[in-house]
Specification:
70% of the residues lie in helices and 0% in strands.
């Protein structure tokens, strides 16, 4: 069960891409909607988030959906993903795997 919860989002790539795209589509993107630039942004976010657990990403994006008044920076979202992942959770998992 712990493996499923802490599974990196890269192993659920399609789900990660959908979540990030849904999140970013809520915010205006420039003066005109350019799908290629939007896709590049989604790809960049996914690449940087893929090492974190999907549950933490969903919680962080959900928090910003409910409480954010404007589009957050990636750094702000990443800070929240790390917060929702928990202190040293991933390193403790690696220790358990080694044991």
């Amino acid at each position: 069960m712990l493996d499923q919860i802490l599974q990196p989002a890269r192993e659920r790539g399609a789900e990660l891409a959908v979540e990030v795209a849904k999140f970013l589509s809520r915010f205006p993107f420039g003066l005109r909607h350019d799908t290629s630039l939007m896709q590049a942004k989604v790809d960049g976010w996914c690449e940087d988030l893929e090492g974190y657990p999907m549950y933490a990403i969903k919680r962080a994006l959900g928090w910003w959906r409910r409480n954010g008044e404007k589009e957050p920076s990636f750094a702000q979202v990443l800070t929240d993903v790390k917060l929702f992942t928990g202190d040293n959770v991933l390193s403790r998992r690696q220790t358990l795997v080694r044991w």
